Amino acid sequence: MADSDRAAGTSVSLTLQDRPRPERADAARNRRILLDAAARILRDDGVAALSMETVAAAAGVGIGTVYRRFGDRSGLAYALLDQHERTFQAGFMFGAPPLGPGAPAADRLHAFLHRCVDLLSEQAEILAMAESSSQHYQTGAYGVRRRHISMLLDEINPELDATYLADALLATLSGRLFLHQNTDDGMSADRIKSGLDQLLRGITG
Fold it and tell me: SS3 of 4, please?
């Protein structure tokens, strides 16, 4: 296993890094009911229809229950993305190369960035909703992605400011930016990947 994967350790979800203790069975069941209701709204009516009120109505609970569980709309969005993020983390930390261990760092970083674009093609709207939180940079997922990119960059060239560059690369992979590029400017996912390749060549030489 590569150094980046040893340091990253086990997968970390999209929730805040200071995570609560494991849920009781009844609390976990109630959370699942709320998330299932939210997922149905998202599938049938889109992100615009997703609110604390609509989730409460669909789940047959009081709106206070939804706020206590998720805090706000961005917290709800993070919870909906959580399993997708865990699957992605498993891929880049433990999966097959070039995304996972066993390939050169430059190839792994290239595969990582391209996979992020693929995920944005599927999840940009809900991710943009999640990113509205002021705590976005404190989420576990952001920290894991940042650490993974910075360790790969450090392996490519130890003289790079890997932490700063990791933040810079992640900024190009926001849901809001992708929606602007893809929807407003008509950039395809392939064009965005090509631009990332150019950016990466400029960074790594």
Answer: helix
For residue 148, give both structure tokens: 């993974």
Residue 119 to residues 87, 113, 166, Cα–Cα distance (Å): 11, 10, 18
Report whether 112 contacts 99 (CB < 8 A): yes
The pTM of this model reads: 0.83
Ramachandran quadrant class, 60 (left: phi over 0; alpha: psi -120 to 50; beta: rest): left
Helix-helix angle 73-94:140-156, to 10 degrees: 30
Side-chain-side CA neighbours of residue 176 (13 Å):
8
Angle at 92 between CA 91 and CA 98, to 5 degrees: 100
Domains of the chain: residue spans and CATH: 3-204 (1.10.357.10)
Measured CA to CA, the distance from residue 168 to residue 164 in angstroms comes to 6
pLDDT tens, position by position, for the chain (205 residues)? 444 444 444 444 444 444 445 667 777 888 899 999 999 999 999 999 999 999 999 999 999 999 999 999 999 999 999 989 999 999 999 999 999 999 999 999 999 999 999 999 999 999 999 998 878 899 999 999 999 999 999 999 999 999 999 999 999 999 999 999 999 999 999 999 999 999 999 999 8
DSSP letter for each residue of 26-62 = HHHHHHHHHHHHHHHHHHHH-GGG--HHHHHHHHTS-
